[in-house]
Design a protein that fits this description.
- The radius of gyration is 17 Å and the shape is globular.
- The protein starts with 5 loop residues before the first helix and ends in a 5-residue tail after the last strand.
- It contains two helices and nine strands, in the order αββββββαβββ.
- The chain is of the alpha+beta class.
- Helix content is 16%, strand content 34%.
- Strands 1, 2, 3, 4, 5, 6, 7, 8 and 9 form a nine-stranded antiparallel β-sheet that branches.
């Protein structure tokens, strides 16, 4: 051990690096420019409901199946306008990454996740698959629906609204 205590810090940093995932084919690079001329989707249209950006979105349904077990913590994410970052919880692990937004087009860039096992791992895998497949979104009231190329892949609800 080093007298300055740097060995434990190095071990922590190395373990954080080991928790990241590598980009998969089809991931969207974070360097892709986002058009500033696109209709701003960060704020909700009057009467449309919750804002896409800045809202805590909680998973209610994935792959056409409602989530069972209201007692456990549900997967969720929040989009931040600053730097087009996404962060959240996938069911077992924390997630973070980037997103691209243009009009009603929403694509998630490479996401990183911690690598802990838990009983909700199947739900987490389905949620991450839905985020990867998302190409557009619709907001209706307090509901956010993510669509893939073949239709809806997930339905989320703004935190704090009745389910």
């Amino acid at each position: 051990m080093h007298a300055d205590g740097s060995a434990p810090l190095l071990a922590i940093l190395l373990s954080l690096v080991a928790c990241t995932s590598t980009p998969r084919p089809g991931d969207h690079p974070s360097s892709t420019p986002v058009s500033d001329t696109a209709k701003p989707a960060d704020a909700a249209t009057p009467g449309s409901g919750a804002a896409l950006v800045g809202t805590d979105w909680v998973l209610m349904e994935v792959g056409g199946q409602p989530l069972a077990g209201r007692g456990s913590r549900r997967p969720e994410f929040q989009l931040a306008a600053d730097g087009r970052k996404v962060q959240g919880f996938a069911g077992c692990n924390r997630i973070a990454g980037t997103y691209e937004l243009k009009g009603d087009t929403l694509k998630f860039g490479p996401l990183i996740a911690t690598k802990m096992a838990c009983p909700a791992l199947a739900t987490e895998e389905a949620f991450l698959k839905a985020l990867d497949a998302a190409v557009r979104y619709e907001i209706g009231g307090s509901n956010l629906t993510l669509f893939g190329a073949d239709g809806p892949v997930a339905r989320l609800q703004a935190r704090g609204t009745p389910g």
